[in-house]
Please model this.
Amino acid sequence: MSDKPKIGISIGDVNGIGLEIILKTLSDSRIYDYCTPIVYGHTKVASFHRRATHISEFNFTVIDHAANAISHKPNMINCWEEDVRIDMGQVTADGGKYAFASLQRATDDLLAGTIAGLVTAPINKDNIQNEEFKFPGHTEYLQHRDSKDESLMFLVSDTLRVGVVTGHIPVSKIAESITTDKIVHKLKLMNTSLQEDFWIRKPKIAVLGLNPHASDNGLIGNEEKDTIIPAIEEARNHDILAFGPYSADGFFANGTYLQFDAVLAMYHDQGLIPFKQIAFETGVNYTAGLSFVRTSPDHGTAYDIAGKNMASEISFREALFTAIHIIKHRKETAELNQNPLVFAKLSRDRD
Model:
């Protein structure tokens, strides 16, 4: 790539597998042909994980600002000065404290435009909570920092793309949180992302029902008839090719998802359980609808294998390359739209 993007990487919980999968990914020198990575953390913490991962020939280039990143090198910005206690596989206050320090600094640079995108390693949604992070997860925090009213949790792979209407909320609140307007807005975000970020000119989107068997014509709930079907009809009025609602179990079991460019699920587990089953290891979590590009691997901190050199970097590597591709697509889309040809009707007159 002639203009390699600078990609920020937040390290996640220092007691999880975040730095292990980062180190394994960046140990492949081919990565540097496509981007300039900048890890936000600390070299001492990285060295601890490097020893645990048995990666010997690897060193970060320490920089003080993203603008000074060195091409073809793994760059590191030290986000704190003090020593950090590492307790592999344990949930500690320090794990959350330094995960937030990394994320906050990376997000600052993202909003300042000094990095082109952000890949986030997994956090623990509990121990990261503080006065500045009172959110259910990365998605909501980044949406807040970007001053957006809505975003779309979008799980993507080569064979399946799944977005959700409701994200990190209790199951007891799902039905009351789903409205026609909310579904339409999520469909708009998904349709725009498919066109601009994935270059699918006329996306076909499947919409899942909320109730078992998509309510069986009202026998098992009214949400499909009263909320979801009107949303699908409204989306079509906005030139969005939305279809459904489909019964979630049969939709995935029968492979119907292969006929669509993306699927909109009503709630978190309805979409993420089949996605993780189908796209195991290769899935990527992408936050669509923001002014910047953010991706993450489709797994958590994996405390049970932290420090054991057992974590696979495949999903993290996919997240990194997905960010690179979306940045490239967005840039080229903007360039193509800078000076569009003026539309003019052809005259029926003849010479």
Observations:
- The chain has a mean pLDDT of 93.
